[in-house]
């Protein structure tokens, strides 16, 4: 079934290209024919003008009227007649502003010469005049028709692509939201059981430190469940201290990560307030830190820093891992894209959605050097 859909799509594209090619070819043929007709018309006009100049029709007024009729019939083709003996220019069907100076006339003659070969009027091999002429208005309009046609086709294809991409993105979002909510539901059952077991352990006089650590992890699982349940719905934002929230996430990760990871925290002492959802923000920091740890293969240095300017706060997470190539800077945020052997490629795409869609911020690869490390940057607007 998938193969049939793929073949149908390529068949549609091929048919579209064939139709476009036929339209462009017929337009070119029509354009060429019009130019040939224009040339023939001007050659007749030149012959009539030459006949008039030679005054060979004076004895036959009927022929003279015919010659004048041919000359007067040109009401559309722009032309400049240059008479060699008098060194004069005569214009027809041209706006006077276009030929009000000698320089403009010469520029127009140059342009007309590129469109058509000038027609020379001779008498006994003596050059009398030269006719320079250009495209009539209808030919000029037709000349740009293929460009407009291609533009319309391009916009049509772009509209189809954007519609397809939006539909696909909406379908993926629904799928992820459904998976996230189902995950939250599945975690909820054993979590309730763990809460009950901690109460039993308390009654059995188990070392309180053990129980306290279990309760921390249970609280963490409740936070994770809450995060997953928020996917697919608009989270509630509240004014929070960015420094305090980042510090809390940092210390939680530091305590539960291998001692082979050197954690460093560079943050200001004063508070920085932003509108955020603490659970989702913490989830984003965790994703970026865990990606950095994976890139370092479990050994290296993670640095979290915060800087602020007049409008934005910048959170940067740096690692000393394998780094990224330039081509991967944008691709890593694409759903399903991953550089790891294991993983679904959803962590960074979710982080992007949390920061950019829910918090109206920006997330990007600030810097990355292969085999030296990567720095990810989050920019959030402050409320100070």
User: Could you say how many structural domains there are in total?
Assistant: 2
Secondary-structure element series: HHEEHEEHHHEHEEHEEHHEE
| Amino-to-carboxy terminus distance | 56 Å
- Strand order in space, largest sheet: 6-8-9-11-10
Number of strands: 11
What is the global morphology? Answer: elongated
Which parts are unreliable, with pLDDT below 50 for 5 consecutive residues or more? none
Second CATH tier, the architecture of the largest domain: 2-Layer Sandwich
Q: Which structural class should the secondary elements be placed in?
A: alpha+beta
CATH topology of the largest domain: Heat Shock Protein 90
**What does the average pLDDT come to?**
82
In the CATH hierarchy, what is the superfamily of the largest domain? Histidine kinase-like ATPase, C-terminal domain
Reported for the largest beta sheet, the result is:
5 strands, mixed
Helix content bin: 55-70%
Percent of sequence in beta strands:
15-25%
Rounded to an integer in angstroms, the radius of gyration calculated over CA atoms is 39 Å
**What would CATH call the class of the largest domain?**
Alpha Beta
């Amino acid at each position: 079934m998938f193969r049939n859909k793929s073949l149908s799509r390529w068949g549609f594209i091929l048919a579209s290209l064939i139709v476009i090619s036929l339209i462009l070819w017929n337009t070119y043929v029509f354009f060429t024919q019009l130019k040939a007709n224009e040339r023939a018309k001007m050659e007749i006009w030149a012959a009539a003008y030459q006949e008039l100049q030679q005054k060979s029709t004076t004895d036959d007024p009927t022929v003279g009227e015919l010659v004048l009729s041919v000359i007067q019939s040109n009401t559309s083709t722009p032309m400049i007649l240059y008479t060699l003996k008098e060194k004069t220019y005569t214009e027809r069907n041209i706006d006077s502003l276009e030929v009000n100076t000698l320089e403009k006339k010469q520029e127009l003659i140059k342009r007309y010469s590129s469109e058509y070969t000038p027609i020379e009027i001779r008498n006994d091999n003596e050059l009398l005049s030269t006719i320079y002429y250009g495209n009539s208005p209808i030919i000029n309009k037709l000349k740009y028709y293929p460009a407009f046609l291609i533009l319309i086709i391009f916009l049509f294809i772009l509209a189809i692509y954007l519609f397809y991409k939006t539909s696909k993105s909406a379908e993926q979002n629904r799928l992820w939201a459904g998976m996230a909510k189902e995950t939250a539901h599945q975690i909820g059952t054993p979590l309730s059981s763990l809460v009950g077991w901690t109460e039993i352990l308390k009654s059995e006089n188990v070392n309180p430190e053990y129980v306290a650590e279990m309760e921390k992890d249970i609280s963490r699982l409740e936070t994770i469940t809450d995060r997953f349940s928020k996917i697919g719905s608009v989270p509630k934002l509240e004014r929070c201290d960015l420094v305090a929230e980042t510090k809390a996430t940092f210390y939680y990760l530091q305590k539960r990560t291998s001692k082979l990871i050197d954690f460093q925290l560079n943050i200001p002492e004063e508070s920085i307030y932003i509108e955020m959802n603490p659970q989702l923000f913490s989830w984003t920091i965790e994703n970026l830190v865990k990606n950095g740890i994976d890139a370092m293969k479990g050994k290296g240095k993670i640095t979290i820093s915060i800087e602020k300017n007049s409008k934005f706060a910048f959170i940067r997470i740096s690692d000393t891992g394998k780094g990224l190539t330039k081509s991967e800077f944008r691709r890593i945020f694409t759903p399903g894209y991953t550089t790891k052997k294991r993983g679904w490629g959803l962590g960074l795409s979710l982080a992007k959605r949390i920061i950019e869609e829910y918090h109206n911020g920006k997330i990007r690869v600030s810097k990355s050097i292969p085999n030296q490390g990567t720095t990810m940057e989050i920019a959030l607007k402050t409320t100070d």
